[in-house]
Amino acid sequence: MDLNDFEKRISEIILEEGLSYYEMGKIVSLEYDGKEWDAVVEGTQDYAVSIALAENGKISDSRCDCPYGMSRLCEHQAAVLYALRDRLRSKNAPERIKERERIKEMLEGLDKSTLISIVAEFAERDEGMKEEMVMRHIGKADIIGSARNVIQAAIRSAERYGHVDYGDAERAVSGATAVFDIIDERTGSGDIVTAVSLCIVILEEMLILLERCDDSNGYVGAVIGEAIERTEKMVSHPVAREHGRKIFDAVFDHSLNERYDGWEWRHDLLFALIPLCVIPENRSRMESFIFSSPEKKRADKWTREYETRKMQLLHYGMIKHVDGDAAADSYRETHTDNRDIRMAALKDAIEKGSYEKAMDLCSEGETKDVEYPALLNVYKKYRYEIYGRTGDVQAQREVGLDLLTDGDGEYYPKSKELYGKDEWVPIRQKILKELNTFSHKGLYANILVKEGLKKELLEFCKINAYAIMSYHAHLLPEYKDDVRSIFVTYIKVTAASARDRNAYRNVCDIIKKYRKVCGVKADAIVDELIERYSRRPAFVDELMRI
């Protein structure tokens, strides 16, 4: 798994929760100890996450001491991965700002002729600097070619034997980053045509770079995403008809670049052009493409179906923008099998307060998409939101409990808020009974913690000894002896299944935690393990290091 594309290996639900944790500032700390990145994430309690990251961005190990994280990637690990990726991308930012201020102060003390001499000398040495100077001070007619030169010069400076290594990717995109500054200037002055043309130059050069670059850190992909986002924002600006046609043709023609095959970026560009489809000629060209999209003719069934859904969604969006809601509804009614259109219409209905329409769309989706459990859950969540907006508390209670007992912990506090104190106790018991299964152990234990049910939590830890790593703080000091006993059991069970040095180290980490939590020396359990596993020298070696 790679830090740049870890999203491909983690479920969408876990990613959403992890990103939410990160954006809400739930990561209490994130430090590098020389070997691993250690973090503390605030959840139902504080969880410890450790991530081992190789120099090439590969994630060699990831652990969390929450119950879910003992077996696979959890939302706490996902949150730390998001934070870690952002941290590493910007780790030198403060130092760079300080250095820039120091240089600025030094230059301010020089006379004009000395400054000119210095700039001329460095421009002669550095091709990228020279090209950027030309771009920033050149006339409008040559700005496109100059911007391309700046981007290409930066790429050449980072290239080695026709390839850009992951460690040099940031330098390779520095020219494109400089061009973004010029795009801002052109946008601010109202020159949208040139600004969009500059975005296209960036996209063209980054697509070529992507083919000969290790983009493990995501720099190239991030620049492509930013260029498309800027294009979308600029296209939404009011422009003269002739400029609207020119911008549309430029972006549309670029979107057909074969290098976009298989990427979602082509769709992003096409959707960005919807506002310009108010111009009849642009709309006609877009519709011709929608009806004859080459991707819809691909051999594999999945690609054909996916592309068909996307093109229909594009058509729906265009009709809605140009012809209005009534026309869009008529189009949707002839494409009820398209779940993407249905979801777009559902969100729009809720935003506009058309709750009856939204409920009808939920019912339709639950019938049409019965083979997609994840989608059925989404419809259920929208029902919950609609019931909340319309004040139907009883219906909201039922849906919330349904979501909660299906394992969605987000609906524990939401459900509790819908009941009075006396009403909640029997409901809580019903919830816990349904959640006390293999699939929902973590959520079950977390609710026990939140509800202060220490006896039930102790019984849970006795049955699931691994849980003592996460929940010991909630059992102390009342159940000190029990916590010690469960720790010893967990150490012995983990040791029995350990088969390599990493597993042996994990056992030793548990022993260290046991020693710290319980305030014991742990000599007895260490001696017992050394004697029992004397034929495993690597294990004995690790135990002797404690």
* Rg over CA atoms: 29 Å
Derived from helix and strand composition plus strand pairing, the structural class reads mainly alpha
**Given the structure, what is the number of helices?**
28
Mean pLDDT: 88
Count of discrete domains = 4
Q: Which oligomeric form is depicted? A: single chain
Beta-strand share of residues: under 5%
Question: What share of residues is helical?
Answer: 55-70%
Could you give a short account of the major beta sheet?
4 strands, antiparallel
**Strands across the major sheet, in which order?**
1-2-3-4
Overview features:
546 residues; mainly alpha; 4 domains; four-stranded antiparallel β-sheet; 28 helices; 4 strands; 5% strand
Describe what this molecule looks like in 3D:
The protein has 28 helices and 4 strands. It has a 4-stranded antiparallel β-sheet with strand order 1-2-3-4, with helices on one face. A hairpin with a 5-residue loop joins β3 and β4 (59-64). It is 67% helix and 5% strand. It has 4 domains: 6-94, no CATH class; 110-237, no CATH class; 242-323, no CATH class; 455-544, no CATH class. It is mainly alpha-helical. The protein has helices at 12-23, 75-89, 93-108, 112-125, 127-136, 143-158, 169-172, 174-188, 192-210, 219-235, 241-255, 265-272, 280-292, 301-323, 325-333, 339-351, 355-368, 373-390, 393-405, 411-417, 421-435, 441-451, 454-463, 468-471, 480-497, 501-518, 523-532, 537-544; strands at residues 27-32, 37-42, 46-53, 59-64. α5 (127-136) runs antiparallel to α6 (143-158), α9 runs antiparallel to α10 and α9 packs parallel to α11. It starts with 11 loop residues before the first helix and ends with a helix.
